[in-house]
Design brief:
- This protein is mainly beta.
- It has one domain.
- Helices cover 8% and strands 35% of the residues.
- The N and C termini lie far apart (28 Å).
Length: 110
């Protein structure tokens, strides 16, 4: 059985994608891949990440739009030094930005 990596990021962390031009705020973490096989198979094989690693649910944005993204740990790096994320759902999930990290609202903690 493969060794499962520990999550490097937590809800509230600001991250950016290593290969694609978007950044976001983590709002949930899956310890291993937990999406559909169809979604996974749609990723080109040459860049398809391993399933046995944490995957992050992000409130994501790029220059054109805001959306929800599902990204493997290997494709994310911390990005708090570039300031806040301007996603329309941030205020519903988070209380504000504190020292480069969003504070999760109490109703969303588990």
């Amino acid at each position: 059985m493969p060794l499962i990596e520990r999550a490097r990021f937590a809800p509230g962390d600001i991250v950016r994608h290593r290969m694609f031009d978007f950044r976001g705020v983590v709002f949930d973490v899956d310890p291993v891949f937990a999406n559909s096989d169809e979604w996974y198979e749609a990723i080109p094989e040459a860049i398809r990440p391993a399933k046995e690693q944490p995957y992050y649910h992000l409130l994501a944005e790029n220059d054109d739009s805001s959306y929800i993204a599902y990204v493997s740990q290997q494709n994310l790096v911390g990005d708090s030094e570039h300031g806040p994320v301007d996603h329309p759902q941030i205020e519903a999930m988070f209380e504000g930005l504190d020292k480069g990290r969003y504070r999760l609202r109490a109703i969303h903690r588990h």
